[in-house]
Every structure is written in C-alpha cells, then in structure tokens.
Design brief:
single chain; about 280 residues; alpha/beta; Rossmann fold; six-stranded mixed beta sheet; five-stranded antiparallel beta sheet; 10 helices; globular
Amino acid sequence: MSENMLEVANLRVSFPNRDGSLSEAVRGVSFKLGRERLGIVGESGSGKSQTGRAILGLSAPEARVSADKLRFDGIDLLTCSPAERRSLRGRRIAMVLQDPKYSLNPVMRIGAQIAETLLAHQRLPKAEVRRRVMQALADVAIGNPERVARLYPHEVSGGMGQRVMMAMMLIAEPELLIADEPTSALDVTVQLQVLAILDKLVSRRGMGLIFISHDLRLVATFCDRILVMYAGQVVEEIKASELHAAKHPYTQGLLNCLPRLGAPRHPLPTLQRQEAWKA
C-alpha cells in the first residue's frame, strides 16, 4: 500500500430538493490519509458524516456524489463495480456508526452479528469463526465474551453496544476505520475506555483512522491532524498539537466557546457566523 492509503479531492455530495434544485451537504472536500489518526470536527450539519459515508459508499440512494479523486490504495471508489465496493466494505474499509441501537439488528444475537461480518468476506471453519468472535470481543475490553455473544442488543448498555460495534467492524482487520461520533452517547469514563481501545488497535495494527466528532477538545487530544468543517467545506487543516494557534476565525470561535475550569464566564460566548465562511 502507498504512503497515502486514501486520497480525496474535491468531494461533493448533494441531495435533491422538492423543487428539483440541489442542496450541497459536502462542497469540495479534499485531504489525504496515511496510517494516522485524522479528526474531522464541526457543528451538526457541517458535512462530517456525509463525507465518511461517501468514502464508504453508504450515501443515501438519492444522493449525488462526485469527486476529482476518491481513491483507496489506488482503487477508484467512484468507478469500481458494486461487487468490488462490497468486497472492500468491512474487509479493508470499515465504519463504526454513531448509535448502536440503530445499527445493530435487534433480533440477532451479538455473536451471530459479529460472525456475519467475518463470513461475508472469508470462508472459515465454525470453530475458527467462534474463536475470532471471542477474540474480537476481548480486544474491545468486553469481559466474559462468551456470555455477551449470546445476548441481544437490547440486553447491553450503550457503552457495551458501542464496543460491540467496534468489534464487528474490526474483526475482519480493515486497513482504514471511519469512526462516526463513536463516543457521543457515552459518559466520560466510558468515552476514555473507547478511545483507549481505538488508540491501542490503531497503533497495534497500523491502521488509518478517520475520527468524526463535534467535540473539538476530544479530537485535539486523540488525533494527529484535524480538519475543521463548516457548511460542507474544510475551512482549516491543522496539526492537533497546534490547534491553539488556529488561524481561521471559525476555528478560533469554536475554541473560544469551550468552557474553562477556573475561569467562569457568564454567559458563555456564542459563535458569530459569517456568510464569507460559506464562499
């Protein structure tokens, strides 16, 4: 695989309106990704999730996706056949979606759902599948994986459900993982556990990670680079370690709105958006 496993140039995702016009959710996004942790941050509706879905080919049927370049390991993701896209999805590129209660099948046991992901790409003996499922659950810090594998999704907590989703996406050992708000519904303690698991797996397997979040402080402490999105565009790209020196007024405004311990501000400042940022 080349140094840049993923190349995105001028990615656009639009949706038709009732009057026949188009609304652009993603407008000209460009970036490259190696074996690193890339954070994509922005407010709700900024185009973060639609960018991740377009890469994986999970945009809604009515969406119109175009790009000057959308390549993974030299494979053109826009022109490859549906069969080739399916072979990549889950096996080489995987995506952890935002809320496990909407992503897990409520009438299938957890172990069967994880095994299904593996069997979609490999033919393995039943004993080996079971071993891999147990190992996948153990890898995401789930104790007593045999018991958890027999449970249904409604029988586990939100934090455990999110870890089950991670196990399902990681069992086939993908090279690129897109994590869409993987900690948004979790309390702080479980958030740290999930981030520690992701960090360990990315480091151990040498994966590339796209970490999508609205939490600027969280992404700054976890990722190597950050893309800041506003109104479907990338307005700033910066090293996570240099976030405090951000130049774009939108990024500066987001940072200024963060609460600070020992420095109470009442009321908290609000972000003053400018039309020029959408240009």
